[in-house]
Write a structure and sequence with these properties.
Rossmann fold; six-stranded parallel beta sheet; 13 helices; 369 residues
Length: 369
């Protein structure tokens, strides 16, 4: 079975990994990686090198992003991606192509596939993120796909409503957590030395723009910096940088300014990669920001998460989440409360230990669907 995997960012590649590791060693599948988006952007760490290190026989490389995260820039990148993929789909055929999530680049690649009749399997459909335009892209991808792998039962029902059928819609849990019980963090001294992390308590932080709040993002970025200035007086901050979203530059500018004024307390990381990111989460005291990893993955590491603003609003939450508005005073209040908490002892609603096995079984029988 010739199977293509669309990956446009460090985030989706990390989620795919448990599945890719199995597909790569299963003779039933002829696996080909289709790398595009920020993977080929030096500004975002050129994470194509991480994919190449994992030893796939075939990696297709498609460069289409421009260095402009304005509304016009995102639109141009979207159009470029469609044009590049029109040529790619015209010259490559697959039995099935995997796509994941809700990025605008992913949506563009998927939309370009529709006239070619490409059969798609979508992972993480049905979710809601009211503070991001990703919500629209996610549903576009869902409507274009033939098979759907959702992360909760509720999302399975939502996808079934969208496609007006419950056929080929499967609740498999969050793919990134499928082998979490086998995860062994990198040796602490080795890990801290690799990234120059001080051997002291720290908070792991990731902020992205609220792409449905164009006018407010500059203000939000300033509120973020004010809150992080206070937080750095209490604990060290390990911050992963924003991805290629509309208005991401505002957040980057404020983070660089924060680093200048609090150099000894702030560490900025462009790209961890999955193993390093999970290790950073493992050793962190708690998480702060507005990224999906806080909602979906942190509960399995027994970490509390301060979830800021509306970017993840509507996404189902476990009981480790502390919600805060995008105001420095409220973020600081949540931060102070989080400092007093012990490790989270509850369940993670996204966890399913058999996620990869379920997906592979379905893929091998997909002709019958």
């Amino acid at each position: 079975m010739r199977i293509g995997v669309l990956t446009s960012s460090r985030a989706d590649y990390g989620i795919y990994l448990p599945l890719l590791q199995k597909l790569k060693t299963d003779s039933f599948f002829e696996l080909e990686i289709i790398a595009f988006g920020t993977h080929l952007s030096k500004f975002h760490g050129y994470t194509l090198t991480d994919i190449e290190k994992d030893g796939y026989k075939t990696i297709h490389k498609i460069s289409s992003l421009i260095d402009d995260d304005s509304q016009k820039g995102i639109t141009i990148s979207y159009g470029n991606t469609i044009i590049k993929f029109s040529n790619f789909w015209d010259n490559n055929s697959f039995d099935l192509v995997l796509c994941l999530g809700d990025r605008f680049e992913m949506s563009a690649a998927v939309q370009a596939s529709i006239p070619f009749g490409i059969k798609l399997a979508h992972i993480h459909g049905g979710e809601t993120t009211l503070g991001a335009i990703d919500n629209i892209y996610r549903h576009q991808i869902t409507l274009a796909s033939k098979i759907h792998f959702t992360s909760t039962e509720a999302y399975k029902f939502r996808v079934a409503e969208l496609v007006e059928s419950n056929k080929s819609v499967f609740d498999v849990g969050a793919l990134s957590l499928s082998n979490i019980e086998e995860f062994i963090p990198i040796n602490k001294n080795k890990f801290f030395s690799r990234f120059k992390i001080k051997d002291a308590p720290y908070c792991l932080i990731t902020f992205h723009p609220e792409t449905n709040a164009f006018r407010e993002n500059n203000e939000y970025a300033i509120e973020m910096r004010k809150a992080l200035e206070f937080a750095s007086s209490k604990i060290n901050l390990v911050i992963t940088m924003p991805n290629a979203d509309n208005m991401g530059k505002f957040y980057r500018e404020q983070l660089y300014l924060l680093k200048k004024t609090k150099r000894d307390k702030i560490l900025l990381i462009e790209n961890f990669g999955k193993e390093n990111y999970f290790t950073a989460m493992y050793y962190a005291d708690f998480l702060l920001g507005n990224t999906s990893s806080g909602i979906i993955e942190a509960g399995s590491f027994k970490k509390h998460v301060i979830n800021v603003g509306d970017r993840q609003k509507g996404r189902a939450q476990s009981k480790n989440i502390i919600d805060s508005k995008f105001k420095s005073t409220e973020i600081i209040n949540a931060f102070n409360n989080c400092l007093k908490l012990n490790s989270y002892e509850g369940d993670n609603i996204y966890y399913n230990s058999r996620s990869v096995k379920i997906i592979i079984k379905i893929l091998k029988n997909y002709e019958k669907l």
